[in-house]
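Let's practice the habit of predicting before peeking. Look at the sequence and jot down your guess about where helices and strands might fall. Then scroll down.
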Amino acid sequence: VILEDSGKKPDDWPDPKTHKVGPNKNETQNYMDKLETTDTAEEGVSAVMMSGGDEEDEHMAGVEKTEDGSVTATDYSGGEVHTKEYSSQKEFENDDWVYDNFSYYSVE
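Done guessing? Here is the structure:
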């Protein structure tokens, strides 16, 4: 939803109706396996796929990383869009997320 609303969704983006964020017990196709992700966000807009120790514990957000390394994160949860500013990718990852794996996919 976030990438689509921002006009940044790639044409070949996997269908969210048939894909989960990460590996899962139902072995549904997932973004983390399909896309070539990195551990570090590139400058510009990226999708970030987050997962935890539990296969059901996953989430996706959009981040924009600026030249100075600061990050603006936007996610959709609880029926609302949330945006928050961070001084760095590390600060973003260390926020109140319940995830321990962050995979980035540049959409610019």
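How did you do? The chain has a mean pLDDT of 86.
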